[in-house]
Amino acid sequence: MSHPKIDFSRSPLVMGILNVTPDSFSDGGQHYAGANALAHAVAMIDAGADLIDVGGESTRPGATEISVDEELRRVIPIIDQIVERFDTVVSIDTSKSEVMRAAVASGASMINDVYALRNDGAIEVAAELDCSVCLMHMQGEPRTMQTSPHYDRLPQDILEFLARRIDACVAGGIRRAQIIVDPGFGFGKLDVHNLEILAKLEQFSELGSPLLVGLSRKHTLGNLTGRPVTEREAAGIAAAIVAVQKGANIVRTHDVGPTVDALAVLRATKQFE
Ligand code: 7PJ
Q: What is the distance between the alpha carbons of residues 267 and 180, in angstroms, rounded to a whole number?
């Protein structure tokens, strides 16, 4: 398959979020309609996004589930349009194996699954497609995950989950080099959990896979700053810088331009360390 590969030699990479959902928590569905979605993708690519993560189903608590057909109607046209115009890596944010297959056929080269390929058929399809996969930790499931999350030890509980998922994926035929891991900030985690995981992020390097983090606009940043979802950009950039200094390779964000700028400063200082 001739889709662009993720170039980790240019790490840290910035992944721009493209929600094509009418009910996403962070942007209220403003990029939902076709022309708006493409314009937003173009703006993020112009701002320096290395990857675009296309998602058709909201995972926020209380979001309604949608059918495979509806998800395909949302994501496939925009993937086609991005791939036709740009070499930027397209990631498909889905947990459904049918959507994974169709998105990769359209030119996506990464699967970003908040269920870490735990749904039926997901590992088999990802192995067959031989594309990059992001395995994210989530405790519980989106509808109820924030009710009473509990951890015995952090970050060990999450490291153990991810290590088991890596093993299951490799046993299922996914090449280890294709695997990316993600602690899943906000997915079955209280503020204290998110902050402890961020503080101890270096430990994720023991998994031996590139690390993706997504803190952009999340509740913990709102609680730390007292700011609504539209005013969390600065907090998100600070969180991204902390994460990259502790080893994150990909930053998933709504605010691509400012994140790219902030990482340019960090990169410029790194050469003298
Ligand atoms: C994440 C995600 C994340 C990965 C969402 C939001 C909620 N995928 N999808 N990591 N979050 N890999 O964007 O606020 O943290 S949806």
A: 22
Active site residue 118: no
User: Peptide bond preceding 155: is omega within 30 degrees of 0, i.e. cis?
Assistant: yes
Q: How far apart are the first and last CA of the chain?
A: 39
Q: Please count the other Cβ atoms lying within 10 Å of the Cβ belonging to residue 82.
A: 25
Q: Are 3 and 108 in contact (CB under 8 A)?
A: yes
* Residue 113, SS3 per DSSP: strand
Domains and CATH numbers, the chain: 8-267 (3.20.20.20)
What SS3 class is residue 144? coil
Cα(42) to centroid(ligand 1), Å: 20
Which atom of ligand 1 is found nearest the CA of 218?
14
Instruction: Please identify, by atom number, the ligand 1 atom nearest to the C-alpha of residue 136.
Output: 12
Residues 6+ apart with CB under 8 A from 2: none
Given the residues 74, 165, 218, 232, the one annotated as active site: 218
CB atoms closer than 10 angstroms to residue 248? 27
- What is the enclosing helix (H) or strand (E) of 213? strand 212-214
Span 143-187, pLDDT tens digits: 888 888 999 999 999 999 999 999 999 999 999 999 999 999 999
Instruction: Please list, in sequence order, all residues whose beta carbon lies within 8 angstroms of the beta carbon of residue 7, skipping any fewer than 6 positions away.
Output: 13, 50
Predicted TM-score of the model (pTM): 0.96
Mutate to test the pocket of ligand 1, among 17, 111, 162 (most ligand atoms within 8 A of CB): 17
Mean pLDDT of the chain: 94
Structure tokens that stand for 154 in this block: 């952090």
Q: Identify whether 267 is a catalytic site residue.
A: no
